[in-house]
Amino acid sequence: MSGLAAFPLPRPRLLVLFLAAAVPLALADLVPAFAVLALAAMVIALALAVIDFRATPRPAAVAVERIAEPQLSIGVRNRVTLRVRNPFFRPLRLVLRDTVPDSFDVDRRAIALPVPPGGEADAAYAARPRFRGSFRFGDVYLRLRGPLDLVERQGHVPADAPANVYPDLQEIRRYEVSLRRGLAYDAGQRRARIPGAGSLFERLREYQPDDDPRSISWAATARRGRPISVEYETERQQRILILLDAGRMMSSTLGGLTKLDHAVNTALMLAYVAIAKGDEVGLMGFADAVRSYQVPRRGRRQFLPLTEDLRRLEVTTTEPDYRAAFEFLRARSARRALVVLFTDIVDEEASRALVAAITRLAGNNLVLCCLLQDPQLAETATREPRSSRELYERVVAADVLEARARALALLRRRGVHAIDVSAERLTVATIQRYLELKKRFL
C-alpha cells in the first residue's frame, strides 16, 4: 500500500469527465477540429485530477485512534471505534478499513466517514472473536476523497495494538449491572446484605402465612400486586474446585464455539458468583495431562488469575486422563469441596473411564458433572431416514445417546450430581445447581 499511496485512485466523476471529453472524437472524421477539442478537454480533466490530488491531504496527516476494550469477549459482539481527528480547515471525506485478526468476524469492513473541519468523528464496527487467546490489530487503511471528488488518495496509519480475547466477560458486566439496578439475574442471584443477619439474598417468592412479616419486599409487592417475600440463604464460606476437560471431545462446535469455549464461559461466571459469595475458588484445566492449576483462594483478587488461566486454556486432540487429573487434585486439596467438572462423553470407552475415575473423587467431595447436549446429534437420532446412509447415521446417533444416558444414570447412582443441557442453558443451569448444592449439602 505504501507504494500505491503516491498514485491517485480515480473517482466516478473523473471517468465521466474523460468520457465526455472523448465524445468529440466520434465526430472527428466529420469535423477534424473536434479532435483538438477532445484533446484539450482531456488535458483539462487530467489537470483538474492533478489539482484535486494535490489538494487531498496525505493519510499520514490524519490522526486515527482505535478505541476498544482491553479484554475482548469470545463469541459475542465487541464494539470497536475508530476516532478520526481532522487537523485541516476544510471537511474530510474518507473511507476507513481496519486490520483485524483473521479469527475476528466483523459486520463492517469499509466505513465511509465525513469529518468536520478541525473536528473529529467516530466510525464503529462490531468484532466477534471466534477463539480465545492473544492476537493483534494492525494498521488502519484510509482513502481520502479530493475536494473536487475526482480522485482519492490512499494510505495507512500505524495502529498496531494487542487484541486479547477472554471468555465472555460481557456476561459478568451484565450481572454486575443487574446487581446495581436491583434486578434479578437469569441465574437467580441478586446479592443484598441484611445488617447483622449474616445472610445473602437468594430469591423472591410469594408470601406464605408463616413467613416473618419483616421478610416482605414492599417494592416487589407493589410491582406484582400481591405479597412477595424475600428468601435468604445463610452465608457459609466453602471451597469450589472447577475442572475443565480440554480433550478432543470438547473440540466439537455448538453455535460457532467449541464445547470447551462454552464450558470456559460458564466456569468464569461460576467463579465470579462463588467469589462474590465468599467461597474459595480453584481451577484446573486438563487433557492427557494437567494444563493449568490455580490453588483455591477466596477474595476478588482470585478472579484475575482464574480469568487468565481460562483465557489460555486451549482444546487438544488428546484423550482426557481423568484418573491422573483427579489424583493430581486429591494430592493438593484434601478438604471437602464442591468439584464442578465440565466434560463430555460420546462413547462407551470415555464413559467407563470417567465413571471409574470419578467414583473415588466423589468419596471425599461433592461432585457436579456438567455435560453439553448436541442438538445435531438428537436431530439425527430422530430424523426419518431417506437413504441407507441416513439410516446408518440415525442408528449411530441413537447408540451414542443411549450410551450417554446409561453413563449419566451410572454417575448418579455413584453419588455424582449431573446436568446435561444445551449450550444456551449451561451457565444458568450450572449456577442454579451450585446454589442448590451449596445450600443443601456443603
Structure, described:
With 442 residues, this protein is an alpha+beta fold. The protein folds into 3 domains: 1-166, Immunoglobulins (Immunoglobulin-like), CATH 2.60.40; 169-234, no CATH class; 239-440, von Willebrand factor, type A domain (Rossmann fold). It contains 11 helices and 22 strands. The protein has helices at 12-22, 33-55, 169-181, 218-224, 259-276, 303-312, 322-332, 348-364, 375-382, 388-413, 426-440, and strands at 9-10, 63-67, 71-73, 78-85, 92-98, 104-106, 110-115, 120-129, 133-137, 140-145, 151-157, 161-166, 199-206, 228-234, 239-245, 253-254, 257-258, 280-286, 290-297, 338-342, 366-372, 417-421. A 6-stranded mixed beta sheet has the order 19-18-15-20-21-22, with helices on both faces. The protein has a 5-stranded antiparallel beta sheet with strand order 1-11-10-5-7. A 4-stranded antiparallel beta sheet has the order 2-4-8-6, with no helix packed on it. Helix 9 packs across helix 10. Mean pLDDT is 84; it is low at 183-201.
Observed structural traits:
6-stranded mixed sheet, 442 residues, Rossmann fold, 36% helix, alpha+beta, 3 domains, Immunoglobulin-like
CATH superfamily of the largest domain: von Willebrand factor, type A domain
Report the CATH topology name of the largest domain. Rossmann fold
Question: What structural class should be given to the helix and strand makeup?
Answer: alpha+beta
- Strand count: 22
Report the portion of residues in β strands.
25-35%
Measured as a percent range, the helix fraction is 25-40%
Give a quick summary of the entry.
The chain has 442 residues and is an alpha+beta fold. It is built from 11 helices and 22 strands. It folds into 3 domains: 166 residues, Sandwich (Immunoglobulin-like), CATH 2.60.40; 66 residues, no CATH class; 202 residues, von Willebrand factor, type A domain (Rossmann fold), CATH 3.40.50.410.
